[in-house]
Design the sequence.
């Protein structure tokens, strides 16, 4: 069996430019083999915020203590249970466990596009997450092949059809001053469709060249080798650039691995109670799945404090720079760990809580809380050139 991370794809230059630009972590240096990648996320985000990052986003220590002291544990349990149950509630019929695992993994592989939230709602009435869910369910229902070979065979038209993403916008005259010939302009959502296609095609190529029939096949073999969330995250990040969520900010390598961790979490939630290969005993060590929703909620609760430039950009729906975006995401992970430590160390309610307080469960809680009508309207960070969130 060939390790996917060792493969050089000869046709990479032919991949869609939007994906290549958005897949910024594909050439970064990852932690050495055998390193605990979850520890690397904690250490690198803390180091970045303590040095260069604190000028962009700071941690509100007093705000964290006040938040924990008034924490609503009943609401926390209710929301986490609802989020944890999504993998059991897919309105689909599967032929076997591997087929279900493959679809769940693809759903997590494609959890990005948050920067196009406004454009998606205008065009389709759905946000980024619902768009991805809609598209993956469409591919399953239509019996579109989504194994290694099938992912490579997908076209931009397929993506547009399944995910309901328009490729063309308004028409304009081909020649100035003449309406004899009209041409369609590219839709503002076309780059997102290209990123989805590039992500799927590249993943399919790497799976096939590595000797894996599907993403599910890869996950099963990695978990058979070692049933561990940290191990699966390491293998996924090394194998697939679209999961290599790392930002190079000056001299700092900031490891985030949002989608790889989310994949490990969802696999464990869905199959961990019935198959020991997915019963990860280190599942509580996962960090926040840092995206655009959770940092907005943490800012709202006063746990993180962006500088005035970032606040102004967010309030005016202006895109952040990569350093600003990374600081928001990294600070969220650092602050979440402080919430976990303070709650478990100072609150008897936390230790008695039906669901453990850790970064992954807090992420589920804040993500669901961000969908409440009065909180959904909160402005969120915008960063489009990424396939990582």
Sequence:
């Amino acid at each position: 069996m060939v390790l996917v991370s060792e493969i050089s794809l000869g046709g990479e230059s032919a991949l869609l430019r939007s994906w290549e630009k958005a897949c910024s972590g594909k050439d970064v240096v990852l932690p050495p083999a055998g390193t605990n990648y979850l520890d690397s996320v904690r250490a690198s985000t803390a180091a970045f915020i303590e040095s260069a990052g604190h000028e962009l986003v700071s941690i509100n220590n007093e705000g964290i203590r006040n938040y924990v002291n008034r924490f609503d544990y009943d609401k926390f349990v209710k929301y986490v249970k609802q989020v944890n149950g999504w993998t059991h509630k897919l309105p689909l019929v599967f032929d076997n466990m591997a087929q279900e695992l493959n679809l769940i993994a693809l759903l997590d592989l494609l959890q990005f596009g948050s920067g196009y939230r406004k454009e998606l709602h205008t065009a389709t009435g759905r946000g980024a997450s619902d768009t991805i869910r809609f598209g993956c369910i469409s591919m399953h229902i239509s019996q579109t092949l989504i194994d290694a070979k099938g992912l490579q065979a997908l076209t931009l038209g397929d993506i547009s059809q399944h995910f309901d993403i328009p490729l063309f916008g308004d028409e304009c005259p081909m020649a100035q001053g003449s309406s004899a010939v009209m041409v369609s302009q590219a839709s503002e959502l076309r780059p997102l469709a290209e990123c989805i296609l590039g992500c799927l095609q590249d993943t399919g190529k790497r799976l096939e060249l590595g000797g894996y029939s599907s993403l599910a096949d890869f996950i099963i073999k990695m978990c058979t080798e070692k049933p561990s969330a940290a191990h699966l995250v390491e293998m996924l990040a090394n194998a697939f650039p679209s999961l290599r969520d790392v930002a190079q900010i000056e001299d700092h390598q900031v490891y985030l691995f949002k989608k790889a961790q989310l994949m490990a979490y969802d696999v464990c939630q869905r199959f961990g109670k019935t198959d020991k290969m997915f019963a990860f005993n280190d599942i509580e060590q996962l960090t926040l799945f840092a995206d655009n929703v959770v940092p907005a909620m943490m800012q709202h609760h006063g746990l993180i404090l962006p500088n005035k430039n970032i606040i102004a950009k967010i309030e005016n729906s202006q895109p952040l720079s990569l350093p600003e975006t990374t600081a928001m995401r990294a600070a969220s992970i650092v602050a979440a760990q402080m919430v976990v430590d303070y709650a478990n160390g100072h609150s008897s309610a936390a230790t008695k809580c039906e669901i453990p307080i850790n970064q992954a469960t807090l992420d589920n809680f804040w993500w669901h809380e961000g969908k409440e009508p009065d909180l959904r309207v909160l402005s969120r960070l915008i960063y489009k050139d990424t396939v990582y969130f």
Observations:
- The mean pLDDT is 93.
- The beta strands are 57-59, 168-175, 178-186, 246-249, 252-255, 304-306.
- The chain has 19 helices and six strands.
- The CA atoms of residues 56 and 307 lie 5 Å apart.
